[in-house]
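One such shown below:
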Amino acid sequence: MLSYHLLLQEETNKNWNRKEIKKLFDDLIGLLEMRKLGRLHIEKGDEELPGLTASQIICTSHICFHHFSNEKEIWLDILSCKFFDKKEVKKFIRSYL
């Protein structure tokens, strides 16, 4: 079985919060036409790396998001057995920044 992987690092001036991350995941999963398994898990970073980290198990693998507020950047990691268009995802994510 093939797998498709995107690891994206982007600069952001946005101060992400839980509500915005939930909307991002809902919209992204809708765009990718994938299905969630369980709930979105969001955790606050620690003192060394403040920000928020989120992960969502999907039926074809996972999506993870990290916002490092001191570094003003986000990391997005998508791994899936289902094909997705990486260019479309990059364009979509950049529209949120």
Observations:
- The longest helix spans residues 18-32.
- The CA atoms of residues 43 and 68 lie 12 Å apart.
- The chain has two helices and five strands.
- The chain has a mean pLDDT of 94.
